[in-house]
Write a structure and sequence with these properties.
This protein is α/β, with parallel strands linked by helices and 708 residues long. 39% of the residues lie in helices and 19% in strands. The chain is globular, with a radius of gyration of 29 Å. Bound molecules: adenosine monophosphate.
Length: 708
């Protein structure tokens, strides 16, 4: 780790210097160098610091020093029982890590911190609080619960730390944080550490009368120089063979593999496990005790490949991680920096490789803009992206557990038997790799040496977004990919055609690559309805929509409280909606030229409101005017309405929770819009008894509430 001034020059107390020395900390890291004095002077700060730069020490060291100084000045022993410093962490793991740093620093100083996180016994935490503690490290939800249950008082708190402040706000903890701040006296110190400068964090600070000093390291330092990070332009199908090649080349690999979804983490980890890699997934679905155990297994290297999502891995400080793989490119540019910062920690060398398939490319420009440079592209050959790999396992979307699909349906093929054996036997019993593996369905040119009849999609087919062409050994996988491609959930709309069959693995039997060409059935209602409902939900408009198709007319009608808005500015909004719907459909199906559109408002409620029919009427003036925009703005829900709505959603969440507790069965809530879903996740997120899980993808996501 890059270091600057020796700690002896900060006027720190001797016992604290001893602790630092015991931890191997002789000199301050740049961020510690920057914050130490200001925090000791009692100033409010907003420090921009990446994890891995020594940011925990940047607040924990001055806090311990303050505690030692205050101890000297105080003649009352009771002060030692009052909570004086509170650190808020976005994730349980980060809180545990920060707690550990306080423990190490405070070992010989009589400083004991309490760690208050969800997923662990609240009663134990209560009795810890009864004994008295001066430092709390907590996740916001659990702390709010304990405050509400009157188990902790914060009126003597001298400083509050927001660790990874940007993430705390991204994860929707703002309301909890404001509640906590309202329980602390106004002149407390506010210490905010964040990887990015974040307006929401600063606005909250201002709201609570804090005007923090902004401290920033040279921005270049955010992307640590000693990480060798590069980009592999490959296809989706090449990701696993390439990963396997990388892992097999590095015998001492100690890696974190990042995926964008929980499902993908479980799939990748299971797939690697089938090939004898010591890989495990960590996801928010695992109960806290399992997550803690898993982190321990990774720390002591019983597990050497941790497959995780951003949320699960945020802030993890694991030394010696020598490889980070972005199996999927992060969808948020800032996460690129967070992810690759898991390696190259404490000044050690690190390597990061990001896989960029066609589907990932859309995130690349944002990443380039964020890091303000390009990423070196690796020159790959065919050998790099072909490897002997195990058959792809099948992961149950609900339980995230691997399942043997063919067993239940009675169908058995060798590949599934092989993968099952490989998954259940211990290593000594396993078949040699060459017997259990097969070539994965990499791109046609590479994976199929002698295709029976080569299928080459025409340029038109490749360009035409209405067709989706995919190759898979398994029809379910292909269907799932097609649903994802079309962004729909209704399988009945899929029209599937086999365009090519590859050779069977064992000549006459075994799995075979099949190329499918998908198109969609022109079922206007089934296609349009979920799409329009999502638009209405996102724009918080109180209207209902009806879609009907009769003769050659597609009739889309709206009615409800906000329907008047559709007619303002000569029906501008209706026109836009029609345009969006036309584009949406045209990207998915072939629209007959004679199709007539009748997009209208159903109820005539007041003068000037009329049906709008573009197919019959003249082209309307599409220009907007400010007055119209203002009108629209004033129609947004007021703060009071929002609050009422939030309370309604919380009541629904509580109702679901009680159902689960009484029945001991998981309960799936009715579909909610994204904002309401967030309220439910937030509200039940830190709950002891139940947890929430998102089911499905995209616009029809639902929340399942189940026992922890
Ligand atoms: P953090 O950014 O707090 O997660 O710290 C990253 C790593 O750097 C941790 O493993 C710390 O133990 C280590 N570290 C923090 N501060 C120092 C320091 N002043 N000297 C040496 N190592 C440090």
């Amino acid at each position: 780790m890059e270091t600057t001034t020796p700690f002896t020059e900060f006027g720190l107390s001797a016992p604290l210097l001893n602790s630092l020395s015991e931890m191997g900390f002789e000199k301050a890291s740049p961020i510690q160098n920057m914050t130490l004095e200001h925090i000791l002077e009692g100033k409010d700060i907003f420090a921009q610091a990446e994890t891995g730069s020594g940011k925990t020490g940047s607040f924990a060291i001055p806090i311990c020093e303050q505690l030692l100084r205050e101890e000297k000045e105080s003649d009352s022993k009771d002060d030692e029982k009052l909570v004086q410093y509170v650190t808020l962490s976005p994730t349980r793991e980060l809180a545990q890590q920060t707690h550990k740093v306080f423990d190490q620093l405070g070992k010989h100083l009589g400083i004991h911190a309490a760690c208050l996180i969800g997923g662990e016994s609240i009663d134990k935490q209560k009795s810890l609080l009864k004994k008295g503690t001066r430092v709390l490290v907590a996740t916001p939800g659990r702390l709010v619960d304990l405050i509400k249950q009157k188990s902790v008082k914060l009126d003597q708190v001298k400083a509050v730390v927001f660790d990874e402040a940007d993430r705390l706000f991204d994860m929707g903890f703002q309301k909890d944080i404001e509640f906590i701040l309202s329980k602390v006296k106004e002149d407390r110190q506010l210490i905010m550490v964040s990887a990015t400068s974040n307006m929401e964090v600063l606005k909250t600070a201002y709201k609570f009368k804090s005007h923090p000093m902004e401290l920033k390291l040279n921005e270049d330092n955010i992307l640590v120089d000693h990480i060798n990070h590069s980009l592999a332009m490959i296809t989706k199908q090449e990701k696993m063979p390439y990963l396997v090649n990388i892992l097999r080349e590095n015998s001492d690999v100690y890696a974190i593999v990042f995926c964008n979804t929980q499902m993908q983490t479980h799939l990748v980890a299971e797939w690697l496990r089938l090939m004898d890699f010591k890989a495990k997934p960590i996801s928010g679905r695992l109960p806290q005790n399992k997550r803690t155990r898993l982190m321990e297994e990774f720390r002591n290297k019983e597990v050497t490949i941790l497959v995780c999502t951003d949320v699960a891995a945020r802030g993890l400080d694991i030394k010696d991680v020598n490889l980070v793989i972005n199996y999927d490119l992060p969808q948020e540019a800032a996460n690129y920096v967070h992810r690759i910062g898991r390696t190259g920690r404490a000044g050690k060398e690190g390597r990061a490789i990001s896989f960029c398939a066609h589907e990932d490319c859309e995130y690349l420009d944002d990443i380039y803009a964020y890091i303000d440079s390009k990423i070196t592209k690796l020159e790959l050959t065919n050998e790099d992206v072909t490897a002997e790999i195990a058959p792809k396992p099948y992961i149950d979307g609900k339980t995230l557990r691997p399942v043997d699909r063919n067993r239940s349906s009675g169908k058995k093929d060798r590949s599934s038997r092989d993968s099952k054996k490989a998954g259940s036997r211990d290593q000594r019993e396993r078949k040699p790799m060459d017997k259990m593996t097969e070539k994965y369905d990499a791109p046609l040119e590479r994976a199929l040496p002698t295709p029976l009849k080569k299928f080459v999609p025409s340029e038109d087919e490749k360009r035409d977004r209405r067709f989706f062409i995919t190759t898979s050994k398994n029809q379910e996988d292909a269907d799932r990919a097609a649903l994802g491609y079309y962004m729909i959930t209704d399988e009945s709309l899929l029209q599937r055609e086999i365009v090519k069959k590859g050779p069977k693995r064992y000549f006459f039997f075994g799995p075979q690559n099949i190329t499918y060409r998908y198109s969609l059935e022109a079922h206007y209602k089934k296609l349009l309805l979920p799409f329009i409902i999502e638009i209405l939900n996102l724009s918080h408009l109180d209207v209902k929509v009806k879609v009907a198709f009769k003769g050659d007319t597609l009739d889309i009608s709206f009615n409800g409280k906000d329907e008047g808005l559709f007619l303002r500015n000569r029906g501008e909004m209706l026109q836009s909606l029609e345009q969006i719907c036309r584009l949406y459909l045209a990207n998915k199906i072939t629209l007959p030229s004679k199709l007539k559109w009748n997009v209208r408002v159903q109820g005539a409620r007041g003068a000037g409101e009329r049906s709008h029919d573009r197919s019959r009427g003249k082209k309307q003036d599409g220009r907007s005017n400010n007055r119209g925009n203002q009108n629209r703005r004033s129609n947004r829900p007021s703060e009071k309405d929002q609050k009422a709505r939030e309370e309604k959603v919380i009541a629904l969440a509580e109702e679901a929770k009680n159902k689960v507790i009484n029945s001991k069965e998981p309960f799936t809530m009715k579909p909610l819009d994204p904002r309401d879903r967030r309220i439910v996740h937030q509200h039940l997120g830190e709950d002891d008894t139940v947890k929430t899980t998102s089911l499905g993808d995209g616009r029809l996501k639902k929340i399942e509430v189940s026992l922890r």
